[in-house]
UniProtKB/TrEMBL annotation:
Location of the EAL domain: 307-561
InterPro entries: Biofilm_reg_signaling, EAL_dom, EAL_sf, GGDEF_dom, Nucleotide_cyclase, Rev_trsase/Diguanyl_cyclase
Family annotation (CDD domains): EAL, GGDEF
Cited SMART domains: EAL (SM00052), GGDEF (SM00267)
PROSITE patterns referenced in this protein's UniProt entry, alphabetically: EAL (PS50883), GGDEF (PS50887)
The GGDEF domain, residue ranges: 165-298
One Pfam family recorded for the sequence: GGDEF
Organism whose genome encodes this protein: freshwater metagenome
Name of this protein: Unannotated protein
Amino acid sequence: MSLAGAPLVEFVEGVLDGVVQIGGLESSTPVVLVSNSMARQALRTARGGEEVMWHEGVPLSSVLPERGDRDLLDELRLTHLTGLSRRAVQVWRDPDGVARSTLDYVMTRLSDGSVVWSFRDESEAARSAVSATAAVHDVLTGLPNRQLLRQRLLEAQRRLLLTGRQFAVVFVDLDGLRTVNNSFGHVVGDELLRVAGLRLASMVRDADTVARLGGDEFVMLIEGMARPDEVAAFYHRMRDSLGAPLTVAGVSVRIAASIGVVLDPDPHADPDDVLHNADAAMYEAKEAGGGRAVVYDETQRPSLMGRLVTAGELVQASTRNEFVLHYQPVVDLLTGQQAGCEALLRWQHPSRGLLSPAAFLEAAEASDEIMVMSEWAFNEAVRQVAVWEREFDLTYYRIGVNFAPRQFASTNVVAMVEATLERHGVEGSRMVVEITESDVLDSRSASARQIVALRDLGLRVAVDDFGAGHNSMSWLRDLPVDIIKVDRTLVSPDPTQREEDILAAIVGIARAIGADVVMEGIEQVRQIEVARRCAVRFGQGYLLGRGMAATDDALPVSLPGALPPP
């Protein structure tokens, strides 16, 4: 098993120990197969600063100091012959006997007979050099960190001014890393990050830079990229490189990414502003559904920056407990009794006041923060139900909670729901999980299987916004749907006969699969009259009651007199 030509070549370049793979130990002239920069630096120090040409196949003797190399060769050959790993210390001295290098090393034979010699220079000078390297490199991937990236970006801007050599800044965000961490643990997530770093590094030339900013964010500086068509070609290569299956701890995962690109950056701009613009373009790619590339457009800067600011504030909102739930009643249109309510997420923004999801949902869905918010909302709704159950009979009362589509891509959503119900002592039958068609592509998907598992916990399943998109009858047939919530756009405040006919058809479908129907967006009495004629049992909307903050001593109630007599 040679390291040459494998991803490990890039990996060993990022580690802080010297690594050299040596072949041909059965011959009189062993050769270097692979080496990293730390090894080359340490051996240059041991040679008193003498430079040599490193390349695959260079004789080992030409890169070692003359003094003491015979002992080292003997140790390497012994490791090759016996297959036993060896650990020792090698000291190389100058002609006056002063130690230049003190290498604490380990030798290990690989299956192809080559030996990997890894070492750390324990001299004071070497420790200082390692510390300096570590300060500007990411610990997990060995790639340059933000500090070194900023320095190289400044250098690229200077070259642009002096020579006109163009370059691009590519901001890369891995899609779904939080889902991987939640589903399989951080060990798998960290390995995914390391492999992503290796694959990105394998795409670029020596003149380019690949850096990791932290989390799932990488930045690439690509020399000579100046046109949108070059961005498209580059992204397709990146997608193919990252998308190769990866198996970690028996788990098979794939890496996907969204990228934002700044072409021909202003050479006078602050590097942080350039990175910010690339980040904004990447964010737009995320908002558009992810898995794509977006080139930054200066004319879109205000709206992009606004959404980027919102995304940053959302992270703070989670830690500052700024989210609240308001509960909108669902009413039995025949009896006027409360049948339940829907938990609606609101953001109590410190300066903008109470915000509905329309002000922040796109920003949340473009980041992993939507997962945090959705889990918080479900936990808070279940907690409130537990309080209400101590005061009221909720036998026929159900509380609906909207689940983010990305939650169903995480295999831990069922475990999360089960643990939340158990923590608060609430039966699953009290809760309704509200989904949209985009949550479920087909009845065979992993998302569909998780919805079935949630129903097995006793939760009822409601199809939200039915009629607003391209609904597929097949998944209504195959999945356990309990409630169809007719979208507000399907029946207007002044319903036409055609709208009434469509509503009646939906009721017929619901009856066929044994589902209840809730008509959303009721604002006028005429809508209630149409709903009753079509045998729609339940309604929800401003006419019946707006969302309201929860109180422990009262359930959300409909507005008095809102419901006309049958």
